[in-house]
Automatic annotation (TrEMBL):
InterPro entries: Beta-glucanase-like, CHR-like, ConA-like_dom_sf, Glycosyl_Hydrlase_16. Residues 273-341 are annotated as: Disordered. The active site is at E123 (proton donor), E127 (proton donor). One of its GO terms (molecular function) is endochitinase activity. It holds the Pfam family Glyco_hydro_16. Keywords: Cell membrane, Cell wall biogenesis/degradation, Disulfide bond, Glycoprotein, Glycosidase, Glycosyltransferase, GPI-anchor, Hydrolase, Lipoprotein, Membrane, Signal, Transferase. Its EC number is 3.2.-.-. It comes from Talaromyces proteolyticus. The lineage of its organism: Eukaryota, Fungi, Dikarya, Ascomycota, Pezizomycotina. It catalyses: Random endo-hydrolysis of N-acetyl-beta-D-glucosaminide (1->4)-beta-linkages in chitin and chitodextrins. PROSITE patterns: GH16_2. Residues 1-22 form the signal peptide. The keyword tRNA processing does not apply. GO terms for cellular component: fungal-type cell wall; plasma membrane; side of membrane. This is Crh-like protein.
Length: 375
């Protein structure tokens, strides 16, 4: 499909009504109301190996359907109409490097999604359309702004439905860069996203799932964007995620919106220690922070995060969810085991070096980055 045709199809999809169980959502939009603090990833690095069993899901909330660990990784399977299995991280991160090793599902109209989503509906996407076994879609949204539909790109990928590929994003306050197997395929500068107004810049959760964009009940535009109508007699449709790596450039126990601007400089980071609570904010177009302390006589308490009990993902529709919520523990401070692989690409090494405040050749940085990843 040509780029021009895709633009028309995406525009049509925007005015269509998508499959209701496949949507991005927020429980509380801080641009409209005062919301509770988001539970953050309080350590620099995080890793899930979904081939190791159910324990790999301890820092994830299954928001729809069932997702199981297999020898190929987490299995997201559509067996029938209405299936849309999805998981969501139990924590937020604030700028960072995220790497997902995934094999998308094959099948007409079947969408395999990796979505960064914030409370005020900033969004960064990977979408694998099973109809097209030769490309992947990248996309982004700022504050749910859907006034234009010309933001998607479609880099070529070799048989993504037959082969595992590593899809990565390096997200900073100055730019977003997408990588496939360590090769940069797209860069978005802050100023190129409507002078920053459409630039994703608030704390995100990571959501991974599969859904049927080609469901016959979807609007014509959505079905066309998904590459055609899904025939459920061809099920099952299976997507696999082997592993997820995250480096959080601004670790914190919690993130709080201090006003209703949705600007990254308005986000307050809080970390609780035995001596008190330290708050900070990102002050410039970098990952640096400025800190101030507020006295607290209490020690660190167990952080909790609020997660919806239902809900799945799609870049076609964004609504505020009215689903019930439950409180779940934040991720533990444990680090990956010694069997965890180290940085798998120069981009991951550079990201780790960036966190450490280093500027060096990746060959030099690799041993340091590897040590850092296991801290």
């Amino acid at each position: 499909m040509s780029s021009f045709t895709k633009l028309i199809v995406v525009a049509l999809a925007a005015v269509s009504v998508p499959f209701v169980s496949a949507q991005t959502y927020t429980n509380c939009n801080p641009l409209d109301e005062t919301c509770s603090a988001d539970s953050g990833l309080s350590k620099w690095s995080f890793y899930s190996d979904f081939t190791t069993g159910d324990s790999a899901f301890e820092d994830w909330n299954t928001t729809a359907g069932t997702v199981n660990s297999t020898s190929s990784g987490a299995a997201f399977v559509i067996n029938e109409k209405g299936d849309a299995p999805t998981i969501k991280s139990n924590f937020y991160f604030f700028f960072g490097y995220v790497e997902v090793k995934m094999k998308i599902a094959s099948g007409t109209g079947i969408i395999s999604s990796i979505v960064f989503e914030s409370d005020d509906l900033d969004e960064i996407d990977w979408e694998g359309i099973g109809t097209y076994n030769y490309e992947i879609e990248t996309n982004y949204f700022g504050k749910d702004n859907t006034t234009t539909y010309d933001r998607a790109t479609y880099p070529n990928v070799t048989t993504p439905a037959d082969t595992f590929h590593t899809y990565a994003v390096d997200w900073t306050s100055s730019q977003i860069e997408w990588f496939v197997d360590g090769v940069s395929v797209r860069t978005l500068a802050y100023e190129d996203a409507l002078d920053g107004k459409n630039f994703p810049q608030t704390p995100m959760t990571l959501r991974i799932g599969i859904w049927a964009g080609g469901d016959p009940d979807n609007g014509e535009g959505t079905i066309e964007w998904a590459g055609g109508e899904t025939d459920y007699s061809d099920a099952p449709f299976s997507m696999y995620v082997e592993s997820v790596k995250i480096i959080n450039y601004n670790p914190a126990d919690t993130y709080t919106y201090s006003d209703k601007t949705g600007d990254y400089t308005s986000i307050k980071l809080a970390n609780t220690t035995s001596s008190g609570t330290t708050t900070s904010s990102v002050s410039s177009l970098s990952s640096s922070t400025t800190s101030s302390s507020s006295g607290s006589s209490t020690g660190a308490s167990t952080a909790t995060s609020t997660a919806t009990s239902t809900g799945t993902i799609s870049s076609s529709n964004r609504t505020i969810s009215s689903n019930s919520t439950s409180s779940t523990p934040s991720p533990s401070s444990s680090t990956p085991s010694s069997s965890t692989s180290t940085a798998s690409s120069a981009s991951f090494t550079a990201a780790a070096a960036n966190v450490l405040g280093l500027t060096m050749n990746p060959v030099v940085a690799l041993p340091i980055a590897a040590l850092f990843f296991f801290l």
